[in-house]
């Protein structure tokens, strides 16, 4: 489940990055920039800050404390060991949240796979648009399941490393070729200004609510199980800073490339009178138009790499939660390691089928599905992970309260449509109320239950740091 905690800094860093940057990096984010302009880059800025703070605050503490607290292998198990008086509730609730939101998150990756297949091979296979999309969803899933079921965490991490390298090369190559074909920055800017004089403005039409909804994407990092589990697998705490530097360098280059792809891609489309029905497919369209078929194949493989790296990580984390926090906890406490591995493989298949059902609608938006799942994890686990690693007075009851309140706030906010429209204005991203409510619930409930003695003191280095 953790590859023996023996990941090198480079593999851990690119595995965390590739697991994070799914199909939305090459489809969702460029599509948003293509449609709305440079103002959408605030999402990338918020993510960069959030990722850096995640490496600084969470990574070294989580690597150390998961090993010290009875060698916890999953996030729910760590929380249970940290707060033994509420172990059952914490493992059960967190496992439910992980499985529910990861089903949606994995579904977003399969949507990207379906769109890739439909756009790249549209008309070449006599299946009709819906048929081509569906084949793409199931084909993507089949490829990912093959190595995830067979190889587990180590296979997923090693393939993530390779996929991360391919993604970065594609995101450097594509914008350079596009802007070169447009005659450079000056001609590109002129073309974009003919569409919208403020297309290259970071503040055009930006409200306070819109700004906060964009930059607070960074809050989600603290609570993403498929990302922070990589911190638990680094060889040692001393190697975390090296991994951080590698990971942040990779992330900044990739995000700048994604921003350039969306902005320069819009200029190319306008200059050449090309019709783009779905902005999220701009990467695929440019790959087909601008490159030799051999290079196009590599670029499409880069998109598939982004999709696969995230899906495999999410399936693995959801499977480990079902196995360790349901099967082993309630059904077969003394199950052998071989039995646990077999059950884990079955759970991977089950979660995968649910995700494929969620992804069956060809009109689904990748960025929208990612936003919902990202907010759910960020609000439910973000404050909980930060405080459990840094605040010795946090109680088990407070931990349960934070999980429930954070997840429930996000779900209710989405159900009421407040992420689309709030008080007659633009919607407020659901992670904002969810994160605040979860943090407040943990703090207030922990203060109210401090005298009950339901906490274990922080170990060694972390306690000294506090």
TrEMBL record:
Q: What are the GO BP annotations of this UniProt entry?
A: proline transport
User: What's a Gene Ontology MF term here?
Assistant: sodium ion binding
Task: List, alphabetically, the GO terms of the cellular component aspect.
Answer: plasma membrane
What NCBIfam families does this protein's entry cite? Answer: Na_Pro_sym, sss
Q: Which UniProt keywords apply?
A: Amino-acid transport, Cell inner membrane, Cell membrane, Ion transport, Membrane, Sodium, Sodium transport, Symport, Transmembrane, Transmembrane helix, Transport
Question: Where does the protein end up?
Answer: Cell inner membrane; Cell membrane
**Which family does this protein fall into?**
Belongs to the sodium:solute symporter (SSF) (TC 2.A.21) family.
Top-rank taxon, per record: Bacteria
The protein's matches in Pfam families, at most eight in alphabetical order, are given as: SSF (PF00474)
According to UniProt, the name of this protein is Sodium/proline symporter
């Amino acid at each position: 489940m953790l590859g023996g905690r023996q990941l090198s800094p480079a593999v851990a860093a690119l595995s965390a990055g590739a697991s994070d940057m799914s199909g939305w990096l090459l489809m969702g984010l460029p599509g948003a920039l293509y449609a709305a302009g440079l103002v959408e880059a605030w999402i990338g800025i918020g993510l960069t800050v959030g990722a850096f703070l995640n490496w600084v605050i969470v990574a070294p503490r989580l690597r150390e404390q998961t090993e010290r607290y009875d060698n916890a292998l999953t996030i729910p198990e760590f929380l249970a060991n940290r707060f033994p008086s509420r172990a059952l509730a914490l493992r059960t609730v967190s496992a439910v949240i992980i499985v529910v939101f990861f089903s949606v998150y994995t579904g977003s990756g399969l949507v990207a796979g379906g769109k890739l297949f439909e756009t790249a091979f549209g008309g070449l296979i006599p299946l009709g648009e819906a048929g081509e999309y569906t084949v793409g969803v199931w084909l993507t899933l089949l490829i990912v399941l093959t190595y995830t079921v067979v190889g587990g965490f180590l296979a997923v991490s090693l393939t993530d490393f390779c996929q991360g390298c391919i993604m970065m090369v594609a995101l450097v190559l594509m914008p350079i070729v596009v802007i070169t074909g447009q005659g450079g920055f000056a001609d590109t800017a002129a073309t974009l200004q003919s569409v919208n004089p403020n297309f290259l403005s970071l503040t055009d039409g930006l409200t306070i609510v819109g700004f906060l909804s964009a930059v607070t994407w960074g809050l989600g990092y603290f609570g993403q199980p498929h990302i922070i589990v990589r911190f638990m697998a680094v060889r040692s705490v001393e190697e975390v800073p090296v991994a951080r530097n590698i990971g942040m360098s990779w992330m900044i280059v990739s995000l700048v490339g994604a921003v350039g792809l969306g902005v320069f891609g819009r200029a190319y489309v306008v200059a050449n009178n090309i019709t783009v029905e779905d902005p999220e497919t701009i990467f695929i369209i440019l790959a087909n138009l601008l490159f030799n078929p051999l290079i196009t194949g590599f670029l499409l493989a880069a998109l598939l790499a982004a999709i696969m790296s995230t899906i495999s990580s999410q399936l693995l984390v959801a499977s480990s939660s079902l196995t360790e926090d349901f099967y082993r906890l309630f059904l077969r406490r003394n199950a052998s390691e071989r039995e646990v591995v077999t059950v884990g493989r079955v759970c991977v298949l089950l979660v995968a089928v649910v995700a494929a059902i969620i992804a069956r609608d060809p009109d689904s938006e990748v960025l929208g599905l990612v936003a919902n799942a990202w907010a759910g994890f960020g609000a439910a686990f973000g404050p909980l992970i930060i405080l459990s690693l840094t605040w010795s007075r946090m109680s088990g009851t407070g931990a349960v309260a934070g999980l429930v309140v954070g997840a429930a706030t996000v779900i209710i906010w989405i159900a009421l449509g407040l992420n689309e429209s709030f008080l007659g204005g633009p919607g407020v991203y659901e992670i904002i109320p969810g994160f605040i409510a979860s943090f407040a619930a943990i703090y207030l409930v922990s203060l109210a239950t401090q005298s009950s003695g339901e906490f274990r003191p922080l170990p060694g280095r972390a306690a000294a740091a506090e």
